[in-house]
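Q: I'm writing a short explainer about Putative HNH nuclease YajD for a general audience and would like to include a description of its predicted shape. Could you first generate the structure from this sequence?
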Amino acid sequence: MAKPKELHRFYKSKAWQLARTIKINATQGKCERCGGVGEEVHHQIRLTLSNLGDTSISLDQKNLELLCRDCHNQEHGRFKKKEVLFDDDGNFMG
Ligand SMILES: [Zn+2]
Ligand SMILES: [Zn+2]
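A: Of course. Here's the predicted structure. Afterward I'll give you a sentence or two in plain language.
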């Protein structure tokens, strides 16, 4: 599934950059789950094209969570491609 343009545009918007900066400052740049280096701001209620315009979801600090890459990948079920490979059931494949 291609990434919708509107989502892409949102992530480039000043409003998002600001919300992201506030989040990073509030958490002192630390992953809110493991205390590692927070790199990505996650939406607890997933951002979709239908709720993108709802700032209580897209921009509200309460819906944002600063995560390190590992915790973020885990949250979304995305796995590191380089060092470790997992199949769709989460089984280690080498
Ligand atoms: Zn983490
Ligand atoms: Zn996320």
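A: For your explainer, you could say: The mean pLDDT is 86.
Q: Perfect, that's easy to follow.
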